[in-house]
């Protein structure tokens, strides 16, 4: 942890309140957690919150705000410019929030913000449905819905 302004007690409290995991540079999974699709992007966030449930989102936002940390939100992590990460800030990684609910009779689908296009395609095609968006299966659906990842 490079930021002396964040107390260890605050980190412990945050980690205990999350359904997902809190990753810092001291953790063995840090390099995997900060990696993006575009390997040319090499940013080093102070913290990575791997949200386990949507309830982790307001906790992450409140922590970033109260500790004056720059925030990056990662859906699929496929943005070519690396907008899913930030140096010396907090990354809110939503990839585990990828629940998909298909209602074939209404021809509707609801998806979590971490869902990848390939996961969505697989879930809808099982019901003879399709979502006409994107062509790369590792792209996050949230970025695509926000204007090709630039929303």
UniProtKB/TrEMBL annotation:
Record keywords, A-Z: FAD, Flavoprotein, Oxidoreductase
Family annotation (PROSITE patterns): FAD_PCMH, OX2_COVAL_FAD
Top-level taxonomic group: Bacteria
GO MF term set: FAD binding; oxidoreductase activity
Keyword Flavoprotein found: yes
Gene source species: Glutamicibacter soli
Family per record: Belongs to the oxygen-dependent FAD-linked oxidoreductase family.
FAD-binding PCMH-type domain ranges (all copies): 40-151
Residue spans crossing the bilayer: none
Entry annotated with the keyword Disulfide bond: no
Necessary cofactors: FAD
Entry protein name: FAD-binding protein
Pfam families referenced in this protein's UniProt entry, alphabetically: FAD_binding_4 (PF01565)
